[in-house]
Design goal:
Layout (H helix, E strand, L loop, with lengths): L1 H16 L5 E8 L9 H14 L6 E4 L8 E6 L5 H21 L7 E11 H4 L5 E3 L3
Antiparallel strand pairs: 1-3, 1-4, 2-3, 2-5
Helix pairs in contact: 2-3
């Protein structure tokens, strides 16, 4: 009986202390006339950061159907990162997005919006329709 209680306590503590993705960075992809920009610069940066820092895979969610030309948002979880890693990740992500926005054609290409101080909570994401796991 004591072993059963001990096993139950161990498993319940694992679920209690398990990492739960609660904080997400929001990246918005907007269109000007001819569709949204590519997600390749952002996803390449995320993969590169993950490989360089040997972190767990990032959970990335996508909110689709936000406009006539395919506008969407990406939500990237940052809970698995230490404080210094998170700071470095945000700086690198900001520079990757800024580089993408400066290379775009001002008259036809869409823009990528990113505000590092805007953190979206999981409770807010649960209220969003058209939210899927991003796979690329």
């Amino acid at each position: 009986m004591k072993q059963l209680i001990l096993v139950f306590f161990i498993f319940s503590s694992i679920f209690f202390f398990a990492q739960k993705n609660q904080n997400y960075l929001q990246i918005g992809y907007a269109s000007i006339c001819c569709g949204t920009p590519s997600t390749i610069p952002v996803t390449n940066y995320v993969k590169q950061f993950q490989k360089k820092n040997k972190t767990k895979a990032f959970e990335i969610l996508q909110q689709q159907g936000m406009g006539r030309e395919g506008e969407f948002n990406l939500y990237i979880s940052t809970d698995q990162l230490a404080k210094s890693q998170k700071t470095n990740f945000i700086k690198g992500l900001h520079s990757a997005i800024a580089a993408q926005n400066t290379r775009r054609n001002q008259n036809s290409d869409g823009i990528v919006n990113f505000e590092a101080s805007q953190v979206v909570k999981k409770a807010d994401l649960l209220k969003i329709k058209n939210l899927i796991i991003y796979k690329k």
